[in-house]
Amino acid sequence: MDPDRVIIFDTTLRDGEQSPGISLNATEKLEIAHQLARLGVDVVEAGFPIASPGDFEAVRAIAREVEGPVIAGLARAHAADIERAAEAVRDAGRGRIHTFISTSDIHIEHQLQSTRADVCGQARAAVAHAKSFCDDVEFSPMDATRADVEFTAEVIAVAIEEGATTINVPDTVGYATPDEYAAFLRRLYDLVPGLGGVVLSVHCHDDLGLAVANSLAGVQAGARQIEGAINGIGERAGNASLEEIVMLLATRAAHLGFTTQVNTREIARTSRMVSRLTGYVIQPNKAIVGRNAFAHESGIHQDGVLKHRATYEIMDATTVGLEGNDLVLGKHSGRHALRSALLELGFQVDGQALNTAFKRFKELADRKKQVTAMDLEALVTDELRDALRSYALEWFEVDIARNRPPHARVCVRDPDGEELVGDFTGDGPVDAIFRAINAATQREARLREFRVDAVTGGQDALGEASVVLELAGQSAAGQGVSTDILEAAAQAYVRALANAERKVHAAAEAEPAAPEPELTPAP
Amino acid sequence: MDPDRVIIFDTTLRDGEQSPGISLNATEKLEIAHQLARLGVDVVEAGFPIASPGDFEAVRAIAREVEGPVIAGLARAHAADIERAAEAVRDAGRGRIHTFISTSDIHIEHQLQSTRADVCGQARAAVAHAKSFCDDVEFSPMDATRADVEFTAEVIAVAIEEGATTINVPDTVGYATPDEYAAFLRRLYDLVPGLGGVVLSVHCHDDLGLAVANSLAGVQAGARQIEGAINGIGERAGNASLEEIVMLLATRAAHLGFTTQVNTREIARTSRMVSRLTGYVIQPNKAIVGRNAFAHESGIHQDGVLKHRATYEIMDATTVGLEGNDLVLGKHSGRHALRSALLELGFQVDGQALNTAFKRFKELADRKKQVTAMDLEALVTDELRDALRSYALEWFEVDIARNRPPHARVCVRDPDGEELVGDFTGDGPVDAIFRAINAATQREARLREFRVDAVTGGQDALGEASVVLELAGQSAAGQGVSTDILEAAAQAYVRALANAERKVHAAAEAEPAAPEPELTPAP
User: Fold this and answer.
1) Would an 8 Å CB–CB cutoff place B257 in contact with chain A?
2) What predicted TM-score, i.e. pTM, was given to this entire model?
3) What is the ipTM of this complex?
C-alpha cells in the first residue's frame, strides 16, 4: 500500500451510537453501514457485541451484508467479550476484533481497581485470544494520553508480540494538544521497535475542540489510521469529525501528502442520514456539513460568488455532494421512476417496501409540487424506522380555539393490532397530543426533549420531529416526518415510546452479571 | 501586563452577525454586548458601522452603554469607513478602530482589482487616518495566510510605522494548518522588527475544523490576542469558537502557561443567549456548550460519575456555568422575587419592562409548576425582540380534524394598531397559520426555514420556534417562545416578517454607491 495512504476507520455506529439519546435499531444501523461502504471508509466499527443482544445482532447483520469495508467489533480485554465479538464479525468478508484496556493509572486504580502488572497480563491474554479467532486484531491502550508513556509502550509491545496488527492510541478524554499528542506518538515509536511493523492509529475526542488537529498531528507523526465519526458524534463532545479530517487531507493534499479512499461526494448524504436517524442536529456553522459551510449557500449574491469564487472558497460544494442532487420527481412520476431515483440515492427498494414508498411518495407529491432527492431520502429513512415498530399512529384530531386550552384525541394501534383511543386537554397542541398518546397506551412516559426541523426549504417543506422521552427509567428517541408538524410530532412520540418499551423489556431481561457499557465509555 | 496574558477579542456581533439568516436588532446586540462584558472578554467588536445605519447605531449604543471591554468598530481601508467607525466608537470608555485590506494576490487582483503598491499605500493612509481619531488601532492584512509573506510583512511594517497597536493576521478562508500558521507568524516576527512592540493577534476560520488549533499555534508562536465568536458562529464554518479556545487555555494552563481574564462561569449563559437570539442551534456534541459535552448529563448513572468523575471528566460543568442555576420561582413568587432573579441572571428590568415580564412570568407559572433560570432567560430574551416589532400577533385558531386539511384564522395588529384578520387552509397547521398571516398582512413572504426547540426539558417545557423567510428578495429570521409550539411558530413568523420588512425598506433607501458588506466578508 502507498505509504502515505491513510486508513479511515469509522466509529459512528459504536462510539457515536454511545451518545445519550441515540438508539438506532438494527435496520437503521445496517442502512448507515451500507452508506459508509458507499462513502468508501476502510473500516466500519459496527458496535460493541457484548453490550446487548441488539448490539450483537446488528454487528452480525452488518458483517453478513455489508461488502467492502473491514467490519470491526469492540471487546474489552475479557474472554467473554472477545468471543462475542468474534462470533459477531465471523461472517464478514474481512472481520476485525478491536480489544482495549486502560493504561492510565487513574483508570487502573479507580475504574479497573487493578494493577499495572495485571493490565499488562490482561492485554496479552486478550490479544492472543482475539488472534485465535481473527487475523486482524486492533488493540487500544485506553486513556493513553494521560498514561505513563513507558508503561503504555510496554503494553503495546506485548500486544504486538501477540499479533496485534493495528495499535490505536486514544486521547479518550480529549485532553491532549497537537504538540503533546505528536510527541507521545514519536516517543512510542522510539520505545517500541515493533510499532514500525504495524499500523498506528489515532482516536481523538473533541472536548477542547482539538480532535481534528490532534488527528492531523498523529498522521504527521507516523499514524496511518484515523478513527472518527460522521458529524463528529460520540461520547461527550464526540470524536474527530470524519468529514472534517477527510476534507482536510483532501483539500490540503499538495501540502500534507496524504491520501484516503473516501468518495467525498457521499459526505453530505451520509451526514444527513446520520443526523436524521440519530436525531442529532448539525449546527449551521459546522465545518463541511453545516448548511452555511459553503459561502454560495449564504446571502452572498450569486453573481458575486461566480465572479470571485476562488477568493473565498477553498473547497467546491460539489466535492462533498452538496450539489448535483437535482433529481426531481413530480405527481406524474411512476413507480419505475421512483425506484430508479431511490437506486440513484443508494437505496435498493423492491416489493412491498417499494409499494409503501410509492404510496408515501404519491401522498407527498399531492402536497408538494416538486419532490426532491432530499425529500426522498427523508421518506426512505422514515420508513426504515417502522421495521421494529410496536405501536402505530392511526389518526389524531386537535381543537385549537381562542381562550380555551387545546384538546387532542388520538388513536394508536398496539402491537396486537388493537386500536386504542385516548384524549387530553393540554397546555399546547403538542402537549395535548403527547398526553393523549400516554392516555391511549396507558403509559406514563415523560417528555425530555422535543424538536422540529424542516427537511427542505420552502413553504411546503417536509417537517421532521424528534422526541426524547423517558419511560420507567429508560430514555429513548423517536423521529417522524410529515408536511404536518403535529403529525410528525405524534409519529415521533409513538416511535420513541416503542423504542423505550423495547429498552424497558431488555433491561428487565438482562441478567444481573451483564456488562454495563454505559460505565465503560471505551476508547 | 503579564507576558502570558492573552487578550480575548470577541467578534460575535461582527463576523458572527454576518452569518446568513442572522439579523439582530440594536436591542439584541446591546444585550449580547452587556453579556460579553460580564463574560469578561477584553474587546467587543460591535459591528461594521458603514455597512448600514442600523449597524452604526448599534455600535454607537454599545460604545455608550457597555462598560469594561474595549469597543471596536470595523472599517475597510477607506476614509469614509474609518470616519464612520471613529464616530461610532467615539463615546466608548476605550474605543478601537479595526481597519483591514487584503494582501493576497488572489484578493488584490480579483476582488480589489488593484496592485500591491496601491494596497500598501491604502494601508498606510488608513492606519494614519484611524490614528488621527483613536489611539487604539488594529490592522488586519486580510487573507494573509494565502498571501506572499514578504509582501504581507511589508504592509504590516507600514501599519506599525503609522501607529497600529495591534496587528491581526487572519486565516480568512480557514485554509492553514497549525504548523503552517505558526511558521507564517514566526516568519513575520523575523521580517518585521517592530512586531515585537505591538500585540500580534490571530483570527482563524473553521472551514477545515482547525480554527481552535490554529489559534493555539498562534499564541504558541507569540500572538497575545485571539479573535473568536461565541458558539463559533461567523462566515461559512465560522470563527474559532471563543468558549473552546478559552477553556483550552484554562484547562491546560499548567501545560500551556497562558492566562485570560474570562469568567468561564458565564460561558453557558452567553452561549444560550447567542443561540437564542441568532436562531443558530448548537449541536449536542459541540465541545464545551453542547448538551452532551459533559458526561454527567449523559445516561451514565449518577453514582458512576460521582465515583469516577476524574476518570472521564477533564473539566467540571460548574466552571462553564452549566450547573448552579438552581434558582426556581413558582406561581406564588412576587414582582420583587422576579426582579431579583432577573438581576441575578444579569438582566436589569424595571418599570414597564418589569410589568410586562411579570405578566408573562405569571402566565408561564400558571402552566408550569417550576419556572427555572433558563425559562426566565428565554422569556427575557423573547421580550427583547419586541423592541422594534412592527407587527404583533393578536390571536389564532386552527381546526385540525381527520380527513380534512387544517384551517387557520389569525389576527395580526399592524404598526398603526389596526387589526388584520386572515385565514387559510394549508397542508399542515403551521403551513396554514403562516399563510393565514400572509393573507392578513397581504405580504407574499416565502418560508425558507422553520425549527422548534424545547428550551428546557419536561412535558411542560417552553418551546422556541425559529423562522427564516424571504420577502421581496430579503431574507430575515424571527423567533418566538411559548409553551404552545403553534403560538411560538406564529410569533416567530410575524417577527421574521417585521424584520424582513425593515430590510426591504433599508434596501430601498440605500444609495446606489453604498458599500455591499455581503460582498466584503472581511477578515
Assistant:
1) no
2) 0.85
3) 0.84
